Amino acid sequence: MNSRSIRLFNNNILESLTHVHPIVPLLFWSPVVVFLLWRALAVHGLPLQSVAVLLVPGLLVWTLMEYLLHRFVFHFEARSATGKWLVYLFHGVHHDAPNDKSRLVMPPAGAIIVMAVLWALFSLLIPAPWAEPFCAFFIVGYLIYDYLHYATHHFRMRHPLLQFLKRHHMQHHFTTKTAKYGVSSPLWDWVFGTIG
After folding, report:
1. What burial class does residue 192 get, using C-beta atoms within 10 Å of its C-beta: 0-12 exposed, 13-18 middle, 19+ buried?
2. How far is CA 70 from the centre of its chain?
3. How far apart are CA 185 and CA 165, in angstroms?
């Protein structure tokens, strides 16, 4: 497997934004999760049990978003040169260098943009005080995905479930790039018939 790093930009500053140490998402997003949960409980006075119930929907919606982004955005069949370059920038480089340790988790620069759009969407669809804890658990789902993805590429998985997830993802990389889009869960691959 290729562990080399592919240079994407001639500009050193832009290039540096495409690399991230794996601990960065945890350090960046954990305070956001804590802040959103604190606001839900301390500022809005939502009951702990009611907030905790949002854990499952938050994680479930994350797995759906992960699947949709991976299938329809990261594997988008662009026609223009710019479109092809953007798809390559966001995901194609990962398929060309799947073990590049500095590109296995999403850099905050890109994640902030995606999360801002999703926050706006959640705020429209979920009543005001409940959007914050839902978003907190959604971010937890994202962090689980990031670290499962990193571990899938760099660690031996001993637990049968983790071995299954690793095999599922490696088949996406090396057997069929048009199936097995779920990384943290194969659920939506089964639902949408892309299990391969």
Report:
1. middle
2. 9
3. 7
The pair of three-digit structure tokens given for residue 186, joined into one six-digit string:
């194969």
Are 2 and 96 a contacting pair, CB within 8 Å?
yes
Neighbours of 187 (CB within 10 A): 14
Sign of CA dihedral 126, 131, 135, 138: negative
The rounded distance, in Å, linking the Cα atoms of 138 and 151 is 20
For residue 36, what are its two tokens?
Answer: 């959103």
Mean pLDDT for the stretch of residues 41-53: 97
Q: What pTM did the predictor assign?
A: 0.91
Q: What whole-number distance in Å separates Cα of residue 66 and Cα of residue 184?
A: 8
Main-chain dihedrals φ then ψ at residue 114, nearest 5 degrees: -60, -45
